[in-house]
Design a protein that fits this description.
This protein is mainly alpha-helical. The protein has helices spanning 91-109, 115-133, 143-153, 157-172, 179-189, 191-200, 206-226, 228-232, 241-246, 251-255, 261-280, 290-312, 326-337, 341-344, and strands spanning 59-61, 70-72. α1 (91-109) packs parallel to α4.
């Protein structure tokens, strides 16, 4: 759902945050760059200036069927939005992927629409993908740009359909029985972004795909644990029901912001497992071009820092929602270049 605050560097002209709730992707696999820019045609901006859409473009009409749904296209917090680290040739594609994911995610999460209206809007995007696949992309944003990116870089349409499937699930599913069911959601909500980035950078391989999935899923989980309270306000609980029972925790803990020993033990388990999953993807940094390696190292360091914040609060994400300050970002930069041993030594066994 990557909307969350806490992973965006203050010096990177961060995108305006979503109002509430968790976001897909880690959703989108955070980016850590010197400037965040989305280059629009004929923008005439300074290359190093943070991008802001002109007032006439702050909102976009998404499609004829969804014309009454207007959303900002510039407030993902954890997404590699065509930063200066991204090669110039890839920035339009990254921006197009972002706009598609952002607006579709807003259908599922933002405003006061009824569930059937949200699903109808997402169905409209599905039909737009059908039209794009047939060679007749809609003229409304973001589809002309997305069609160009898909054609130029041979991006799999199935990954965009996976995102829409996850966004629909945000509308229809509010509880998850097991961790496997949470992982299945992450497979569609977060992992497609990493897979798309691998395709853009011509870095696809089975091993790289597995490592990317581990990182993206871990980031999504970190977002969930960071935003337990915010998601509760939308009647969503991503903590697996069987694990709540295993630790003697009930939903009353969330409703009452109750941080007793049972809750603390549950959150320690979740952060430990997320750390191990995040680190299991670290080998990917050695297989990527230097630009993406630099961003990914920052992603790993930022994810660890958020987990540090949850642990420092003893799991009390109700009163101390972790997010990164300016001082934290100095540490993230350091840890990106020199990963602490405690990060590199995280292992799946430590989450048992």
């Amino acid at each position: 759902m990557v909307r969350k605050g806490g992973l965006e560097p203050p010096w990177a002209a961060p995108l305006e945050p979503k109002s509430s709730a968790s976001t897909n992707s880690a959703t989108f696999a955070a980016a850590f760059a010197e400037r965040v820019i989305i280059s629009g045609p004929g923008s005439g901006r300074q290359e190093n200036a943070p991008w802001r859409p002109p007032l006439s473009q702050r909102n976009v009409v998404l499609s004829a069927q969804c014309a009454r749904f207007r959303v900002s296209v510039a407030h993902y917090e954890n997404f590699p939005v065509a930063s200066l680290i991204v090669p110039r040739a890839l920035r339009p594609a990254v921006g197009a992927i972002y706009r598609f994911a952002r607006t579709a995610d807003d259908f599922a999460d933002e405003g006061t629409l009824a569930p059937e209206e949200r699903l109808a809007a997402l169905d409209g995007y599905e039909r737009a993908l059908d039209a794009l696949e047939a060679g007749s992309p809609p003229r409304e944003p973001p589809f002309p740009e997305l069609a160009a990116a898909i054609t130029r870089h041979r991006l799999p349409l199935s990954l965009f359909r996976d995102l829409l499937s996850a966004f629909r699930q945000d509308v229809t599913t509010t509880r998850y029985a097991t961790f496997d069911s949470v992982l299945d959601y992450c497979r569609r909500s977060a992992n497609p972004i990493g897979r798309l980035m691998l395709r853009l950078y011509s870095a696809e391989s089975p091993a790289n795909g597995d490592a990317s999935d581990a990182i993206c899923t871990a980031l999504q989980l970190i977002n969930f644990w960071q935003d337990v309270a915010a998601d509760w306000q939308k009647d969503r609980v991503y903590l697996p029901q069987d694990e709540l029972a295993r630790f003697g925790v009930t939903e009353a803990h969330i409703a009452e912001a109750r941080c007793d020993d049972a809750w603390r033990a549950l959150m320690r388990f979740q952060t430990s497992r997320a750390r191990a999953m995040l680190e299991s993807g670290r080998p990917l940094t050695r297989a990527l071009p230097w630009r993406l390696r630099l961003e990914l190292s920052g992603v790993l360091a930022g994810g660890h820092r958020i987990l540090d914040g949850i642990d420092a609060a003893d799991g009390d994400v109700f009163r101390r929602r972790p997010k990164l300050s300016g001082a934290d970002w100095a540490r993230v930069a350091r840890d990106a270049v020199f990963p602490p041993r405690r990060h590199r030594q995280a292992s799946p066994g430590s989450a048992a």
